Amino acid sequence: MCADLSTKTFEVTDYDLSTTLESGQAFGWRKHGQGWVGVVDRRWVFLESSATTLRAETAGEVRDWSWLIHYLQLELDLGSIVATFPADPPMQQAVRACRGLRLLRQDPWETLASFILSSTKQITQIQQIVRLVCERFGAGVPTPPGHTPAYAFPAAEVLADLGEKQLRDCKMGFRAPYLLGAARAVAQGRLDLNALESMPTEAARTQLSALHGVGRKISDCVLLFAYGRQDAFPVDVWIMKMLREQYFPRRKVNLRRLQRFAATHFGPNAGYAQQYLFHYARSQISQRARDAS
DNA sequence: GCCCAGGTGAAGC
DNA sequence: GCTTCACATGGG
């Protein structure tokens, strides 16, 4: 499928596109030349950024770019968010190290499915699995001439009709029945993802956690990355290690305790703060690895 | 071979 | 309540 090209340039400040797309919140972006290729809202997109601009290309004629503005959260004033973070040393180090890191606003079903696939997997492997699922079961989307085929993340209705074996063949292992169960719950209307939008966070979290294979962490990822809930604070192994080392040194603190701490300590934009801490923790490790070699 | 990866649910205490 | 363990698969 080929189509014409539409381009648009946005003025931006403090928008680090690469860090944002690589920070483990979205798994469908692929580096292409100086930019990135992905699919947003069933549209093929190429993104490229400079210090003050973000240029987008997409297939077909586009007059209204609001879908992309929303996805990239281009109208968000990042400074006013970061200003609400606590002033303690670890948080401020993370802010300095991750300048321009943003939260995307992703499709709820794609986010839920992706994070079901994320448990005890490295980010590169999650990308691999998500890519396989898209290529095998996703709908093709129009691409500009000369580009390789692109696929949207498959709808819940599509995955719901598959067998567990077909999903396992995408290398997702024990997560296959979890994904299938979630797809069927959404396809059959037992879980209404649209309804979560207007629901208090705690109620939405309960709804998501009712799915087999979805607990507190995955629920919080969905609430944060798809719904923008700032009172969602996913605590994964990286955040756990970071919180223990930086805020509770030489003390035994369990997960429950860390969650309670996070819920009050990081302020009204705790979810955003979490992404800064997560990315900072991971970049520290890769920096140490580079220093060692 | 070993340990670990954006976890979760079940079983054990 | 809290802690421990199995669960697929691949990278370092």
Key structural traits:
293 residues, alpha+beta, 15 helices, 7 strands, 49% helix, globular, DNA-binding
What does this 3D model show about the protein?
By secondary structure, this protein is an alpha+beta fold. It is 49% helix and 12% strand. Strand 3 (35-40) and strand 4 (43-49) form a beta hairpin. Helix 4 crosses helix 15 and helix 6 crosses helix 8. The mean pLDDT is 96.
Produce a short descriptive summary.
The protein has 293 residues and is an alpha+beta fold. Helix content is 49%, strand content 12%.
Number of helices: 15
Report the order of strands and helices.
EHEEEEHHHHHEEHHHHHHHHH
Distance linking N and C termini = 45 Å
Structural class determined from secondary elements: alpha+beta
Strand content: 5-15%
Largest sheet: 5 strands, antiparallel
Strand runs, count:
7
**Mean pLDDT, nearest integer?**
96
State the helicity in percent bands.
40-55%
Give the overall shape: globular
Unreliable sequence segments = none
Major sheet: arrangement of strands: 1-5-4-3-2
Question: What is the C-alpha radius of gyration, as a whole number of Å?
Answer: 19 Å
